[in-house]
Design brief:
Layout (H helix, E strand, L loop, with lengths): L1 E5 L18 E6 L6 H16 L3 E8 L2 H10 L18 H10 L4 E6 L2 H5 L2 H12 L1 E5 L14 H11 L4 H13 L3 H16 L18 H15 L11 H4 L10 E7 L6 H12 L5 E7 L10 H9 L2 E4 L5 H9 L5 E4 L9 H4 L6 E4 L15 E5 L14 E5 L20
Parallel strand pairs: 1-4, 2-3, 2-5, 3-4, 6-7, 6-9, 7-8, 9-10, 10-11, 11-12
Length: about 425
């Protein structure tokens, strides 16, 4: 699946790519947040129609969601929201949506940054661009395709409909729980959590996202159990991923090299909370004893002009952007680095590539900062860095990993970050 990032100019015009001079396209449009069965049906029809007509299947994916942009403008005197605006009601990260689209067989995803200037263009103009630039022969629309202000959310309706059609649809039920939480509908939270718990106790974990359970009343032991089930299903370990496999056992007894080689894996090497915390750490590492490599996992992302990305790149001795590779290709490239330690900074969050670690890319693999719960990947993620507050001693048994407890706080902060000179009155 090909992914193209498109940012409208100040006039709302998009430089649409020419996919082919002689092959048409079947197109669908939307934000597809949650990727519920209604979304899948629309995308499935798009793929099927394209295959029948020897055309490209194309999804135009809006990010951020149009409703977020228009709501921000409504409360900020018509201003365009910042590029990194937080979407607290989002059900699913863009990388997760892209992964599902890839599974459904989509040929091209055009990831369009939704802006007010873009929205101001008429729908007729938009369609003309798709016909003229993308060679669109058919447009497949669902309710998610509405563009403009005033759109009411339809996620709960469609998620409930999906569950009525398939009561064992754990993905839809998991997303419905997120809607319940956002709406503070505590009675529905209790009921839907009970339904989801009944499914995972029967071993039905397909589509279940463990991170959604972190804010819910789920016992630590139960959380470890269900997370291990999900991880075993989604990220089965490779044959030589066991630390006792010959590839790794051969390293035992070797003399320590002058510098240990450490790889940091993340999709957030840009203006993101992870780098806001960690950029200073990267810069302060002892390069006389260690060699540090940054491996970017993101399949799309900000341009190289992002100031934080530039800062982080310069902090590493080597920086690789391998997000476009498949999990297997990325794992092979990472193994070629001959790392002594691989540090995952994502966990089960948006943009993670845990299947890479399931193939083991270093003799030791640990997780830090991105995900405070267990990853449930026994024999794959060896250590979790935490502290006595994040993971109290009595909770160590709830983790598949060995817990490295740092003194005081495990959370690093950037000492170079400017402090607001304005002192509040209270």
């Amino acid at each position: 699946m090909n992914i193209t990032n498109l940012v409208p100019d100040v006039n709302g015009l998009v430089n649409w790519p020419t996919l082919s001079v002689n092959r048409k396209s079947v197109v669908t449009v939307g934000s597809f947040d949650g990727m519920h069965q209604g979304h899948r049906a629309v995308i499935g029809r798009t793929v099927e129609s394209a295959q029948r007509n020897n055309a490209f299947s194309v999804v135009i994916l809006f990010d951020p969601r149009p409703s977020v942009v228009h709501q921000y403008a409504k409360t900020h005197q018509g201003q365009q929201p910042p590029a990194d605006i937080a979407d607290s009601e989002r059900l699913m990260g863009v990388d997760q949506r892209l992964r599902v689209m890839d599974e459904l067989g989509v040929d091209h995803v055009l990831l369009v940054r939704y802006t007010l200037a873009f929205a101001a263009k008429s729908f007729r103009f938009f369609l003309g661009q798709l016909v003229g630039k993308l060679g669109m022969r058919t447009l497949v629309l669902g309710q998610d395709a509405h563009m403009g202000a005033g759109r009411t959310g339809d996620a709960r309706h469609w998620l409930r409909k999906a569950i009525q059609l398939d009561p064992r649809d754990t993905r839809s039920l998991s997303n419905l729980l997120a809607v319940d939480l956002a709406a503070c509908d505590w009675d529905r939270v209790d009921a839907d959590l009970a339904a989801l718990r009944a499914l995972w106790q029967q071993g039905q974990v397909r589509g279940l996202e463990p991170w959604r359970l972190l804010a819910l009343p789920v016992d630590g032991g139960e959380l470890r159990e269900v997370t291990e089930r999900v991880s075993a299903r989604n990220f089965p370990p490779a044959a030589d991923a066991d630390p006792a496999a010959p590839r790794w056992r051969a390293l035992v007894g070797r003399a320590r090299p002058a510098r240990l080689r450490v790889g940091y894996f993340s999709s957030d090497f840009h203006q993101h909370a992870t780098c806001v915390l960690m950029a200073g750490l990267f810069e302060q590492h002892d390069r006389s004893r260690f060699e540090f490599i940054g491996i970017c996992l993101r399949r799309y992302g900000p341009g190289e002009q992002d100031p934080m990305r530039q800062r982080v790149r310069s902090a590493f001795e080597r920086f690789e952007a391998w997000g476009e590779l498949s999990d297997s290709e990325l794992a092979q490239r990472a193994r070629g680095l001959d790392l002594h330690l691989a540090v995952d900074l994502k966990g089960h969050t948006d943009g993670s590539r845990m299947a890479v670690f399931a193939q083991r890319v270093a003799p030791l693999q640990l997780h830090y900062i991105g995900y405070p719960g267990t990853l449930g990947m026994r024999g794959i993620i060896d250590y979790q860095v935490a502290d006595a507050i994040v993971v109290p001693t009595e909770a160590h048994a709830h983790y598949s990993e060995k817990v490295i407890a740092l003194p005081d706080s495990y959370q690093v902060n950037d000492c170079a970050r400017a402090i607001d000179p304005q002192v509040p009155t209270r």
